[in-house]
Structures are given as C-alpha cells and as structure tokens.
Write a structure and sequence with these properties.
The complex is a heterodimer of chains A (about 425) and B (about 140). By secondary structure, chain A is an all-alpha fold. Helices cover about 70% and strands about 0% of the residues of chain A. The longest helix of chain A is centred in the N-terminal third of the chain and has 23 residues, at about 5-30. The chains are: A mainly alpha (about 425), B alpha+beta (about 140).
C-alpha cells in the first residue's frame, strides 16, 4: 500500500512541514530567497534518495539537514570571492544560525527549536505577503511556502501554466531580495498595515477557491481549505488581533454554505434559494466561536468582523424571511462607513429592502447609478428590477431585468434573471 | 480521502510503560498533536476508548450468541482509540501517524482507508437513503 517510489511521501511531508522547514532555513541563513532555493534542492534530493533508500525516520529533519548542508556549500562557494561569506560558512558549520541571538547549540537543535518555529512561521507569513510583492506573487509564494503546494498544484488552481507560477515565485524572491526585506514579524508601528496585507492575501486565496466559476472545482475547494488553514495558523500565532479571528470566522461561515451552493446539475444556487439543512453546522459553530473570540478582545468589529457578523446572521436564520435584516442593515451601515464601496452600498440596499421594504431601498440603488463599479455589471439593474417588481412598477422592472440579462456573463445567473422576467 | 488511524498497545510491557507516563505530560503531548491536526484542517474525529476491562463482547459463534464481560482476545488484538482524518493520500496519513505522541516499543498505529459513499452503487435505494442522511448531516 505504501508508495514504493517515495515521491508521494516527499509531497506529504512537504504539505505538513514546508513552513517549518523554510522558516528554519531562513533563520539559519538569514536569506529567505536562498532558504526557499535550498528547500527546493533538498526536495529534489529527496525525490532521488527516498525512492531508492526508503523514507527516512524523521523526513522533515532529513530535509532540513540536507538544506543546511547545501547552505554551507553555497556560502563556501561564495567565500572564494568574499570574506563575509567565508565567516558565514565557518559560523554555520560550527552549528550557529545567522539570525537570532542564541549561543550556538548543536546544528539540528538550533533549526528545530520549538520556541522558534512559531516565530519563524509568523515571519514567513509576513514575508510572503509583503507589500512590495504584487497580489498574485504574494498569493503564489504564500501557497508554496506556507501551504506546501507545488507549482503544479498552484497552476492548476489558478488555471495558468506551471511556468507562469514558477516565474512569479522567482520574481517575487528577487523583489524581496532587492527590497532588502528583513525576515521578521514587523515592528508594532508597521503591524496594522502589514497585517491587513496578510489578511487580504488569505482572503483572496479563499475567494479564488470559493468562486469556482471555472476550472478544477475540487482543487479550488482545496484552495478555500488552504486559506482556512492559513487563517487558523495566524489566529493561533496572533491571538490578540481581533481581525485575524474575524477573518477565520468569515471563512468558516462562508464555507459552511458550500454544500448547498450547487444544484443537482452543478448550477449555482443563490443564498435565498439554498437548502439550509445542507449547511455545515460544524463550520457554523467554528465560525461563531472565532467571531466570539474577536468580540471578546473588546475593540469592536473591523472590516472582516462586520462581514463575518453579517454571515453569522444568515447562518442563524431558518429562512430568508426569518433573517434578522434589521441587524444586517446596521452592520452594512458600519461596513459602509469603515470601507465605503458601491458593492457594500448595493448589499446594504438589498438588506434595507428586506428590513424596511423596497421603497426605502430604491433611493440607495438610484444613488449608485453611474458608479464605475457597476458599469458593465448586471447587478445594479438586477437589484433595481427586483425592487421595482415588488413596488408593482412592472414596466420599469421589465426594462431593468432585460438590461441585467444583457449584461450578465454567467449563464446560470442569466437563467435566474430570465425566470424572474418571465414571472412578471 | 478519509483514513482511520487505529491506536493499539500490543504488549503487556507497552501497557506498563504507558502507565508510567505522567498524566499531565500525556495530556499535553496529545493536546499538541490534536491541535496540529486541527490547524492543518485534517481532523474529522478522535476518540480514545475506556479500558477493555469495561468492555463487553457479544460472540456469535453459538446460537444464541454469548455475551461476556471483559476484554476481547489477547492484548495484541486490542484497539484503544482512533483518529479519523481527511488527507490527500495515504502517505499523508502515514506522516501524521508517525507524528503521534507517546510512541514506544509495542505501540502500533494501523492505518485504514475509509471508502466514500461514491464507491457504492448509486442506484441502490439504501445507498440513496444513506447519501441523503450523509448530506443532511455533513457526513459525506
């Protein structure tokens, strides 16, 4: 049963321990890009050695030892040109690490120090999501380094060629090196902005995974799961940050609806039409627990907290009608003040229409006419058409729905709109 | 893929060794391991079993079946607890099994794949009912 080639074992160890291995090698060498290269070299060596000699007893330790040996080789090669590298090579082969102030213990202990691993993982997350990187580079690097995904897997998830992913990662490492980004958890004054960047990368990975409009659906679900894993790691490492718990809550509460979002023929089922019995109750419970943690910190809800609280309202509601729309309006009001955007405003209008009726919502929708965000989108006429229908202004409703159908690029959603039009 | 990691203590000596481990140390080691499984998003369920001496066996070798108190069979056949995990390949299951805390001579972890309902005939009415139950209970 066990894989005789050892190749799958390499992938399995990498999935479990990539962050710890690269984190330890980065602390050891003081160079993130080099550490990532060393880890890849160690993996390549494992792919040759493990099938021949069997999987070592401590596979992560094996990879680390090989990475460390390669590091010393790399510094020795460079030391021919530069005395600084000669000193490094000497220091490393004596068992030291280049960062961290500990006196030099035995080499493998310094790498696998449990007290250091969490700090390294956190520094690694901040490095992979550094603002000098483009969003897509940050996503690719985070998935590879923290998530332990291969370039192939990342490419499949994002429907791009493997070479593109490899190029993104190479470029990202160069960019980090050129910018002299230190391997550290950012100092307190920079932390809020840097953390916001990390959270947005995780959220982007999740939305890529959850949108699943095309491509390998199973792989995309994995991406959503990967984002949840990243959020869980972060919430353990930064328990004092309420937005970290809030993001985890938002992901859990959103993912809870995944089992109900596809119909028997794979079509998209909108929130209002979903069979709520199929929602994942365990995920809802986990999401609510994370949101309660965020609230307990006592600094209110932030950008993710408000969205998670809205998701929680839906998760708790037995039906669309019996949803606490008044609370959702209040939450959207707050979200609109914190992060004003036409999309939030449109969602607020929908909530207002459910809480107070279509007449109260129509002026909000009308105020959005001409917003760039909706220029080529079916969403605005779709919502406006629905409000006009409920107000009994059927001719106007018909015109809006026809417009929405014209603009809608998604076949399933177009069917929903067409049905609404036919029912007028 | 779902796998069950079945925990066995297969000799009296291993049992004796287990008895000597400080309880708080054991809780911490198991707790840390569980936390890793949770954080990685692979844990579905985990249970440890009460001592086999509290167990009861219904033996169908005779008619009517015989009900007896106490442990079933030899120490080496006892099954003391399990993890149910969801991972991409059996190699991941092996890697997680290797990370189980408190390992020593005589401790064994058996890894068994748990087939999904997709592997059964989908037109069978009982399978259809089971699928409906699984969907309603998030047990797919």
């Amino acid at each position: 049963m066990s894989d005789p080639t050892g190749r799958k074992a390499v992938a399995a160890v990498w999935r479990i321990d990539s962050a710890r291995i690269i984190g330890a090698l980065t602390r050891y060498t003081g160079d993130f890009a080099l550490a990532e290269d060393l880890a890849q070299e160690a993996l390549a060596e494992a792919l040759v050695t493990w099938p021949r000699e069997g999987v070592p007893n401590n596979p992560a330790g094996w990879l680390l030892t090989v990475g460390r040996r390669r590091a010393i080789d790399a510094f020795r090669r460079r030391s021919n040109r530069d005395e600084k590298y000669a000193a490094m090579a000497h220091h490393l082969s004596e068992g030291g690490a280049l960062t961290g102030a500990d006196p030099a213990p035995a080499p493998d202990d310094v790498l696998w120090d449990p007290d250091q691993i969490d700090d390294d993982t956190l520094a690694l997350i901040f490095t992979s999501c550094h603002p000098v990187l483009s969003r897509e580079a940050g996503v690719a690097l985070t998935l590879r380094v923290i998530g332990g995904l291969t370039s192939d897997e990342i490419a499949r998830a994002f429907l791009v060629p493997t070479a593109t992913v490899q190029a993104r990662i190479t470029r990202a490492k160069k960019t980090l090196g050129a910018a002299g980004v230190p391997f550290e958890v950012p100092p307190v004054d920079e932390r809020p902005a840097r953390l916001a960047q990390v959270l947005s990368v995780i959220y982007l990975i999740f939305t890529e995974g959850s949108s699943a409009t095309s491509g390998d659906e199973v792989m995309r679900l994995d991406l959503a799961g990967e984002a949840q894993r990243l959020a869980r790691i972060l919430s353990r490492l930064m328990p004092e940050e309420h937005e970290v718990h809030s993001l985890l809550a938002l992901l859990e509460l959103t993912a809870a609806r995944f089992p109900a979002r596809r119909g028997p023929d794979g079509e998209t089922v909108l929130l209002e039409d979903q069979d709520r019995r199929r929602w994942d109750r365990s995920a809802i419970a986990r999401g609510r627990a994370a949101l309660a943690k965020a609230a307990d910190i006592g600094r209110g809800y932030g950008y993710y907290g408000l969205q998670a609280a809205i998701a929680e309202c839906h998760a708790l509601a037995p039906s669309v009608e019996d949803t606490n729309w008044a609370r959702i309006v209040v939450l959207y009001d707050a979200l609109g003040r914190l992060a004003p955007s036409p999309v939030v405003e449109l969602n607020r209008a929908v909530a207002v229409s459910m809480a107070q009726g279509p007449a109260a919502a129509l002026p909000i929708v009308d105020s959005l006419a001409g917003a760039d965000a909706f220029k080529e989108s079916h969403q605005l006429p779709g919502v406006r058409g629905e409000l006009l229908r409920r107000l009994g202004r059927l001719d106007e409703a018909r015109a809006e729905l026809e417009q929405a159908i014209r603009l809608c690029g998604n076949e399933r959603e177009r069917e929903v709109l067409s049905r609404k039009l036919a029912d007028l | 893929m779902k796998f069950m990691l079945i925990w066995r203590v297969t000799s009296d000596e291993a049992w004796a060794n287990l008895g000597e481990i400080d309880f708080d140390t054991m809780l911490e080691a198991v707790g840390k391991f569980n936390e890793e499984l949770i954080e990685a998003g692979v844990l579905i369920a985990a249970e440890g079993l009460a001592p086999a001496e509290e167990g009861v066996v219904v033996d169908f070798s005779s008619e009517p079946p015989v009900v007896t108190d106490g442990p079933y069979g030899e120490t080496k056949e006892l099954f003391n607890g399990f993890y149910l995990i969801n991972v991409p390949t059996i190699q991941d299951a092996i890697e997680w099994a290797k990370r189980t805390p408190m390992t020593a001579a005589g401790f064994k972890t058996e890894i068994r794949r748990v087939p999904t309902i997709d592997e059964f005939p989908q037109d069978n009415e009982w399978i259809k009912k089971e699928r409906a139950w699984r969907e309603a209970n998030n047990q797919l």
